[in-house]
Hints:
Layout: H1 6-39, H2 42-47, E1 53-60, E2 73-76, E3 78-81, E4 84-91, E5 94-104, E6 107-114, E7 127-131, E8 139-143, H3 146-151, E9 159-164, E10 170-177, E11 180-192
Antiparallel strand pairs: 1-2, 1-11, 2-4, 3-4, 4-5, 5-6, 6-7, 8-9, 9-10, 10-11
Amino acid sequence: WRPLSGFRQSLVMKLVRTTTLLGVLGLLFLLSASSLAQDLPLFEQLKGHAGKAYAGKMTFPDNKPNDPMNKPMRIEVIKISDNHIRIPLRVGDDNSRVWMLTRIDDSILLKHDHRAKDGTPDDLTNYGGVDAHQLLGRQLIFPADAETAALLPEAKTNVWSLRLSPDGKVLYYYLERDGQPRFEATFDLTKKL
Length: 193
């Protein structure tokens, strides 16, 4: 065995460092690629669920067993276009509710479409708001818009939100009024119906 000359030793050390650096960079690339789907904005992740349905339940208020919303829930994600998603919400046997999400430039518009059994618009329909600040995040926040305040004055302080759990497995729909929690439902995105 002969010791390496200075030149050869330097060359071997550079080769080891380069190989180590490439290995670390490759590992970082693989880790970032595997989490890429979870890092997509919420609107884009919802589009990825197009054609799928999921079960849900009311999680707040949890002390009102007779609340009309305290029934098995079901959502289905329907992609209308790259900029429009419809999410019908079924509560028990009631099919009257649809969340409509529309991307407009850098904003997302949420409207609640309510229908009578014959399909005609309910008296209380098309309320919601615009989220212009969370487009790139896991959560969209929709303060009540002027149309909502005119339609239902007591809802002028409403704030709705849609949020994904950090692992992307649970969708939360949340409503507050006057800064206080009013309603929350969760949907398990790991179990297709």
